């Protein structure tokens, strides 16, 4: 039976992303991934229906007997982030409640979103297969898209990543990891008894620490994100507009995600 440790999982994820990028010509998209581990029974995960949304699912909903959740972060490169920094004036028909001169996401950003989804799907399949080889079970959370009424997911990848010790939340509602907040999270539930990583307690968001930043809110042209709060329905309208332009699998924006003090590392 193959030995399966936290370190071996981290090496598997790193090697897979590197190989996938090389095989698909995506070397310009991703930096070194991060992997964290949360206990399925951790108090934070058990409280996610109260913290996030009442219908938030628990690990055993996907895998009876779940012991842990493997959470990983795929950080985007600075070069990719830079493409989405400019205010890319739109062209064509405006979206709901928007004028035609409001910025779209860059095409490179939209394409990277869809390609990262494809890569993570393959990565999840590999992890489940390797868990099986080691004598365990793994399951990928399914049917977890946004509820069109609440604009919330019943499986928050960011909150799971927080439980796995990968970072702390910023003003932009994204998790600030060692590699910053510019990237994507995904997870696999398993009955392998991986020791959990500690939840981080030191605040990484400069605005939440001492009010000294707030750049992400200034970048949000739609007004969905402000220092006073977040309007998820207004944000969602922007992603719908980008999907109408680039394709249904590219419902993105990301203006509050790129070229910030916390985009590519921990802000100092």
TrEMBL record:
Region entry Disordered, spans: 84-103
Native organism: Eubacterium pyruvativorans
Source domain of life: Bacteria
Name of the protein in question: Epoxyqueuosine reductase QueG (Queuosine biosynthesis)
